[in-house]
Specification:
The longest helix has 23 residues, at 119-141. By secondary structure, this protein is of the alpha+beta class. The model has no long low-confidence stretch (mean pLDDT 89). 23% of the residues lie in helices and 31% in strands. The chain has helices spanning 11-15, 20-27, 45-49, 107-112, 119-141, 154-159, 179-187, 204-216; strands spanning 52-54, 59-66, 88-95, 97-106, 165-167, 198-202, 223-226, 230-235, 238-242, 251-253, 258-261, 267-274, 278-290, 298-311, 317-324. The protein has a single domain (93-324), classed as phage-related protein like fold, CATH 3.90.1690. It has eight helices and 15 strands. The strands form four sheets. It has a seven-stranded mixed beta sheet.
Length: 326
């Protein structure tokens, strides 16, 4: 028997029910993830895979020898003299540049956020990715002529060397990737037979173009392992490394086979390097340093490095330009 039959006045009270819309915001415990999601999709392939060597002084100095016009002469058995020909020497310096970042977090935020986690450490983790992303970009498109405080990037260093930029096409709008031209860009790099020391850098569009070209030719890339244990695709045994620092807005001058601007165009490029001849020289490795407190209201932390990107041998890298992004 239903107990409400004994007390009809309680029937309405008994039939009432709480709803989500009526009390959910008060009676339900909010669940917040302890993981802070970094809203980026960055591939930092250049700064992750180029070697880093310790440096000293104000610059990294590279001594270069240009070969003699003639190495030797064929002579008759009665000839006892030849015209001497020697190579020529030049010294090139790569100036160390400083990259600096800073975060500032208030004391009160650190205190109020303590129940959630270490706010200062969380911001440092995110700032670190922002920092290396800027290093990645400078490692590709840095230009000390435009910014005297910046390092020269790969497109600048290699692009200034005659003969080391290979045209995928002469059309200013670019074209789909031709594997014959990729092969040519690999072959102009000194030491290209040592595939393990080579790298092919590309952005997302460039990587898709490589895959499309390989499928069209019914050729398939293998896998290889690079420093850090990462397994990546390869072409002719050369690791293919993605870098979001490579633009897909390059302006291509097909007639002169050179990239004239990093923005305003509709092409991208592949960058091929030999890691024995292209590397970072670090005067000061990446350092994180808390600053002396200037106020009770906040804490400050700096991160910095002193670095140069070195093209030790002018034949140590090449660019394949004129790849359409459409």
């Amino acid at each position: 028997m239903n107990w409400t039959e004994f007390d009809p006045t309680r029937r309405a009270d008994f039939q009432r029910a709480l709803t989500v819309s009526g009390a959910g915001s008060v009676l339900l415990q909010t669940s917040i993830s302890k993981v802070v999601q970094l809203i980026t999709n960055r591939q930092l392939g250049v700064q992750s895979t180029l070697p880093r060597r310790p440096g000293s002084g104000d610059k990294f100095y590279s001594n270069r020898r240009t070969a003699a016009a003639t190495g030797g002469s064929w002579v008759a058995d009665t000839q006892d003299d030849v015209v001497p020909q020697e190579g020529s020497y030049a010294q090139v310096g790569f100036t160390y540049r400083t990259m600096l970042g800073r975060i500032k977090v208030t004391r009160k935020l650190i205190a109020t956020g303590r129940s959630y986690g270490d706010v200062l450490a969380t911001e440092l983790i995110g700032k670190s990715e922002d920092f290396v992303n800027d290093l990645e970009s400078a490692s590709v498109i840095g230009n000390s002529a435009a910014d005297a405080n910046s390092i020269d990037g790969l497109l600048t260093l290699i692009g200034n060397v005659s003969g080391q930029t290979v045209a995928n096409t002469t059309a200013t709008a670019g074209d789909d990737l031709y594997l014959t031209q990729l092969d040519a860009a690999i072959q102009v790099v000194r030491g290209h037979s040592n595939k393990a020391a080579m790298r092919i850098y590309c952005n997302y569009v460039g990587h898709r173009k490589i895959n499309n070209a390989l499928q069209a030719q019914q050729r398939f890339n293998d896998k290889t392992e690079v420093d850090g244990g990462f397994v990546v695709e390869s072409y002719q045994g050369i690791p293919i490394i993605e870098s979001t620092g490579i633009p897909d807005t390059l302006v291509w001058n097909g007639t002169d086979s050179r990239i004239t601007a990093f923005t305003g165009g509709a092409t991208t490029a592949l960058i091929i390097v030999h890691t024995q001849y292209i590397f970072y020289s670090e005067l000061t490795p990446w350092t994180v340093m808390p600053l002396a407190k200037r106020s009770s209201q906040y804490d400050e932390v700096d991160m910095f490095l002193d670095i140069a990107l070195v093209l030790d041998n002018t034949k140590g890298g090449s660019i394949l330009g004129g790849i359409s992004t459409t």
